[in-house]
Amino acid sequence: MHLRRLAVADFRSWEKAELDLEPGVTVLVGPNGVGKTNLVEAAGYIATLGSHRVATDAPLIRRGAEHAVVRGLVVHHGRELGVELEITAGRANRARLNRAPAKPRDLLGVLRTVLFAPEDLALVRGDPGERRRFMDDTLVSRYPRYAGVRADYDRVLRQRSALLKTARNGRGDLSTLDVWDGHLAAHGAALLAGRLDLVAAVAPRAVEAFAEVAPSSEPIAVGYRSGLGDDLPPDRPALEALLLDALARVRRQEVERGVCLVGPHRDDLELSLGEGPAKGYASHGESWALALALRLASYRLLRDDDVEPVLILDDVFAELDARRRRALVDVARRAEQVLITAAVAEDVPDGLAGARFAVGGGVVELLPEESTS
After folding, report:
1. Rg of the chain's alpha carbons, rounded to an integer?
2. Do 360 and 34 contact (CB within 8 A), yes or no?
3. Which among 14, 69, 127, 225 is least buried, having the fewest CB atoms inside 10 angstroms?
4. CA distance 2 to 23
């Protein structure tokens, strides 16, 4: 799987840009602020329908424009698939697959990416929402059908939360709360079952990857922390029953506070270093190593599932020491396609030769082959 062409219009800082790509390594080189990350962000958007930098689509539209367009030509199992996404703030996005209208969700799975970026430090040092997003994004990348599960759960959560909020203010009718409890438990159990399966697969790969990039550090542990307790059953009916029971037990507190206190939206990916939580005990270097280990684990998991994702490395080599660089280079050299951004060519380690584009002044220019050596 690889991108053969990437084009954007009115996306972030770009009025227009187009890149013809090949398998192997492609490096985008240019000073900070010229739009390198915006281009790989567009590639990631095709794969995930979201940005790794912002939670909403509005910042993706160039200032003064009505909408942004991202297009990609993806080579997938020997077939070329053309995808197009029109992003409009405050309205549903439009999508095309091979020029035919499609639902944006239908594009999931056409392109798979694993992206490592400076923002990934939040996986270790940020709030639980960052780690939940990592789990759910990886889950959807592995099994695109979970995009619907995730969307259904979020919709029910919003509606049930709105009902609780109005009840707290004395205006709501709680007669339908039992119905919403059932919906929340059903969709929550489906999402929770997927996450538990994912963490069981990611954890050993992350432990192995961390030992490779930080051999002198204490070992890590990766687990799932749920408000339902430990050692959760993997099957959906049992999880649904546990959620219904928990909702019944906290109903009074939920009505008093006007918030939903039970469900996957309150869970966390538990990261430990030695005997303590990574968030409090990991050094800056160890935090970087753990974030890298999580991304490497998700990449290896997809490959073990016979999926060859595009590896995107956004301005990360300058942040890594020699050992972590070598570990990442070893992975990148075996990938079908790698997209790298760097402020200067010297930031890209030896062994990652490939096409290089100079980015700056609103232009993306392929450098001649002699300039890439």
Report:
1. 22
2. yes
3. 127
4. 6
Whole-Å CA distances, 42 to 14, 50, 312: 11, 9, 11
Of 297, 291, 5, the C-alpha closest to 142 is: 297
Q: Which two tokens stand for residue 169?
A: 């203010």
Residue 257 sits at φ, ψ, to 5 deg, of: -95, -20
Model pLDDT for residues 205-254, shown as the tens digit of each residue: 999 999 998 999 999 999 999 999 988 998 999 999 999 999 999 999 99
Are the C-beta atoms of residues 32 and 99 closer than 8 Å to each other? no
Q: How far is CA 145 from the centre of its chain?
A: 15
Number of H helices, E strands in the chain: 10, 15
Backbone angles phi, psi at 62, to 5 degrees: -55, 140
**CA 324 from centre of chain:** 21
Structure tokens at 246: 């928990």
Structural contact between residues 118 and 126, judged by C-beta atoms closer than 8 angstroms: no
User: Does the pTM of the predicted model rise above 0.70?
Assistant: yes
CB distance 315 to 40 below 8 Å: no
Closest residue by Cα to residue 37 from 55, 60, 21, 20:
60
Residue 33: partners with Cβ closer than 8 Å, 6 or more residues away: none
Planar angle of CA 368, 371, 373, nearest 5 degrees: 120
Q: Break the chain down into helix, strand, coil percent, rounded to 5.
A: 45, 25, 30
